[in-house]
Write a structure and sequence with these properties.
The protein has about 180 residues and is mostly helical. The protein contains 9 helices and no strands. It has helices at about 5-20, 35-45, 55-60, 65, 70-90, 100-110, 115-135, 140-155, 165-175.
Length: about 180
């Protein structure tokens, strides 16, 4: 099996690690944030069998524009149009309210590209797994349940994208608290 462009994947990992260097997850361990994008890339490659450099780079970079000072232009200069397009498709517009961003994720889930849907599915799988096993310390049971239900609304709009991953999502959703 031919591997993807390893130097480009490592460049994306280094870029994401640098951009997320001061961020921590909200779980009790306060684990480094970079573990989340790495887990997405792992799910894509190990559980999904995807070795596309573009897809793995987009997974590693998926939160840089949304959660760091990274700009779309910076991403385009470093990684090109294809990777940037996928990242932008899965990035929320932080100028909108949280409720509006969540609503728009549900509305737009069916319209994003196939690669963006794969990244979004992997993100939701990873988030639900984390939420079930190592939830944010300050989230109530009700808030965690709402997150599970909202994630299902998003994924339901992408059904038919990848049946195996949809089954992985459904298994993660079955652990709803």
């Amino acid at each position: 099996m031919r591997m993807g462009n390893i130097p480009l994947i490592l460049k994306a990992l280094d870029f994401a690690a640098h951009k997320h260097r001061d961020q921590r997850r909200k779980n009790v361990e306060a684990s480094p944030y970079i573990n989340h994008p790495i887990e997405l890339a792992r799910v894509l490659s190990n559980e999904g069998g995807f070795i596309s450099s573009e897809l793995l780079c987009a997974a590693l970079l998926h939160d840089t524009v949304e959660d760091t000072q990274t700009t779309e232009e910076e991403l385009r200069e470093e990684f090109g149009e294809g990777i940037t397009r996928i990242v932008m498709e899965v990035s929320d517009d932080k100028t909108k309210t949280k409720a509006e961003r969540k609503r728009l994720q549900v509305v737009h889930a069916s319209t994003i590209s196939h690669h963006a849907k794969l990244v979004k599915l992997a993100d939701k799988i990873c988030n639900l797994r984390d939420m079930a096993h190592s939830p944010p310390t300050n989230w109530s049971l009700e808030r965690r349940r709402e997150y599970f239900d909202w994630s299902k609304q998003v994924v339901d709009q992408m059904r038919g994208t990848h049946p195996q991953w949809e089954a992985l999502f459904d298994a993660a959703y079955a652990e709803r608290p």
